[in-house]
Amino acid sequence: MVEDVRSCLVRNKSEPINHARKSVSFDSISVREYDRCIDLNPAVPDGPAIGLGWQFNEAPPSLVDDFESKHPPRREFDGLKLDKSAREVILREFGYERAEILKGVRKVNIARNQRKSTLAMQEHENLHLTVEKVKKQFKKCLGVRSSYSTEEKNLWKHAQNVHK
Fold first, then answer.
1. Which residues, at least 6 apart from 154, have a Cβ–Cβ distance to it below 8 Å?
2. Which of 56, 108, 146, 149 has the fewest CB atoms inside 10 Å of its own CB, making it the most exposed?
């Protein structure tokens, strides 16, 4: 019986392997060109951020080979980044006034500062939690630890003070 199972599991080397070839192919491609708008992205180092709008123009479908032959070569990752002046030019071409662009820049700056503040607070909070943990362990070693009910009451008081 064991020999029968082994013989089923071991393939005879003279038998051909039947690999079913699986493939995917594409026939046509549709391209949409979306409007660009002023966006709120705090990761932009300076100047306005650009986003995609909801409106788009759809080009008629074309064969993939035709599209690839007419399409410019792909850009490297660094070539995808636009500097401040290039983003401003694009927004002006889409009809945005200078005042609207400046308003967008102010919003991006506010969001960036809020992000920095949040990260700084997060680091401060981690330090605070570490100090509290060390204090608890120290009290536990000395046998000065408060009862759980007292600790629970103190935590509730602290939580209520935080939310006021």
1. 146
2. 149
* Secondary element (H or E) of residue 16: none
pLDDT in tens, 47-93: 999 999 999 999 999 999 998 888 888 888 888 888 999 999 999 99
Rounded distance between C-alpha atoms, residue 107 and residue 41, angstroms:
9
Residue 91 CB contacts under 8 Å (≥ 6 apart), including other chains: 36, 38, 48, 50, 100, 101, 104
The two structure tokens encoding residue 116: 């920095």
Q: How far is Cα 40 from Cα 57, in angstroms, rounded to an integer?
A: 23
Residue count (the chain): 164
CA distances from 151 to 19, 39, 145, 148 (A): 67, 47, 9, 5
Is 139:145 a contact under the CB 8 Å cutoff? yes
pTM: 0.54
